[in-house]
Amino acid sequence: MVNISVLQRSPEEENPLLSDPFFRRFFGFPEDAQQRIAAGSGVVVDARHGYVLTNHHVVQDAQEIVVTLKDKRRFPARLVGSDAGTDIALLKIDAPGLPQIEFGDSDALEVADFVIAIGNPFGLGQTATSGIVSALGRSGLNIEGYEDFIQTDASINPGNSGGPLFNSQGQVIGINTAIYSSTGANNGIGFAIPIDLARNVMDQLKQHGRVIRGWLGVEIQQVTPDLAQSFGLSKPEGALVASVAKDGPAEKAGLARGDIVVAFNGHPVHEEHELPEMVAETAVGAKVALEILRKGKKMTLEVKVGELK
User: Fold this and answer.
1) Residue range 14-24, pLDDT digits in tens
2) Angle at 277 between CA 234 and CA 201, to 5 degrees
3) For the whole prediction, is pTM greater than 0.85?
4) What angle do CA 249, 252, 255 make, to 5 degrees?
């Protein structure tokens, strides 16, 4: 685990009016704007090449980024790429003798598994807290564009963002990213990005400096128990198509409003939030099978995945 310090853009750069002395005096702003320094955490994911994984929101609007190791060595970091959709950012430092972590399998996690979070809460570096996996596949929190969180009761506080979540074997299985709190402090509900998702984003940031996502061109909604009954489903599952983009991949494949997507490329869609993630991780141009339910009948369509702009 590493500590990350970020020198953010000054208020004047974000709003040129703040550089006007009259404006500052009239509205009571201090004469000298103070530089803002944010703190977060990160984890070395490639010791040989110096790659460090953290959160997008930790390094957002950064002018300078400094990574501090456990042995107190400090290194300037370069932002390789950042993705707001998953809240993942990749940094690079030139540092010898970096520690090497081991990746775990976040898909193999089960509720009640023991986990340890390590980070830099409130500037207290190398702080470890423990707990269990409280839930898997958490979504609908409106924290990020793509949500499939690991929920844990391991204490996560401001400054933990971007730090690793370990399993009992010492393998990284998540990147701590958010808390659910009315006070801003830990209430025993924290969220981490599954490492399998984070690694996929990391690989694209390494290769392209950005994330290239697949696109269907549909808006979807949850299949509620009432909707499931009206569509003849034995239980609420799948993703209900609310609208289809004109000339998009879905329309060209024959998908229509009111269809329920029950499987994508051979993978069942249990809940609606799973479909965007499946599509996003599919290679642009790939032709995949889309299993749908239309007016009580199952159908299979072939769709050519486009690129999300």
Assistant:
1) 455 544 554 44
2) 155
3) no
4) 85
